[in-house]
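Hi there. Long-time user, first ticket. I'm pasting a complex I've been working with (about 400 residues overall). I'd like to know whether the download I got is complete or cut off, because the file seemed smaller than I expected. Thanks.
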Amino acid sequence: MKRLGILLSGRGSNFEAIARSIEEGRLNAEIAVVISNRAEAPGIEIALARGLKAVHISSKGLDREAYDAQLVKELKENHVELVCLAGYMRMLSASFVREFPMRILNIHPSLLPAFPGLDAQHQAFEYGVKISGCTVHFVDEQLDHGPIVLQAHVPVLATDDSDTLAARILKEEHRIYSEAVAIVLNGRYRVEGRRVIEEV
Amino acid sequence: MKRLGILLSGRGSNFEAIARSIEEGRLNAEIAVVISNRAEAPGIEIALARGLKAVHISSKGLDREAYDAQLVKELKENHVELVCLAGYMRMLSASFVREFPMRILNIHPSLLPAFPGLDAQHQAFEYGVKISGCTVHFVDEQLDHGPIVLQAHVPVLATDDSDTLAARILKEEHRIYSEAVAIVLNGRYRVEGRRVIEEV
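Hi, the file is complete. Here it is re-exported in full:
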């Protein structure tokens, strides 16, 4: 059974979606550990309630490298093969990324490369795009930048505000994150340049 | 009947798509004039063969302002109400844009704001996006930047190269350009900030 490590800072609804996919037999994996950088992250309680291992690692007084070294230690001790970011609100250091080459996934609520960074749904809404969506990508050393595993699109409707748009995107996030994890765990893909090509 | 002016530099397949929409009664407008900056643009012959007025305006020896003043003159003499760029490979000057405020449309073969500029389909392919598409937008003084009227998406398939992707996008371009022209001519929209909101 492939072992996942989840990093989150809040509720981590995408973590819950992955947990549900596993529970319902749609994803063949197990969640080895859930790690939060914030003690009060609801995702910790949710993980514990599901009987999962969940830990808070405080960043107090630690620089990024020192903090990320602790993350790496925790993940390795739990034999994590694939790291999934689920609303993890800290940049990962280059040395963390190098510890898990092409073994870290993130989900971002826009069709990257459009609208990287914070508040992507609001950015997209204000820009006036007619189509937005979400992206699961490998994490590299640049923000919201690594090779793309899956994307899903949603329409932006005349009646939308940025909250209704965000809700529509979130539904797609919950769907494609598990699908992307399955693709990566199954290894049925190759990478050419930046292109992740599924081998069916 | 609302009068369109078309600017092109090559074949202008999006011009042909608009002409077909008019011919088949799907778009209530007429093409008043087709203007090319290149004498050898196939679009001129195609326009003439359709019985449309088509002219070449040479840019030889003219700076952008002087050239664009000639374009404006030709368009105004033909009582053009909406200018449609169809593969027009010159930047328009700010003074041209000011002559037709929110009355110039362009079509771009990507989901803007992703992949502005040349060779957008190839850019998207190399970036490894899983979803691309095309965008009809008002032209403002920045490249591929004005408020978006319509977008359409296409999938990027594992078997694609950038040519097959470009062909799939082009089919959507031919569909949505006429739709966007109809929306603008009908005036059933309002603009809030950058957002073009259709009023149905």
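A couple of notes from our side: Chain B has two domains: 1-100, 106-200. The first helix of chain B runs from residue 13 to 23.
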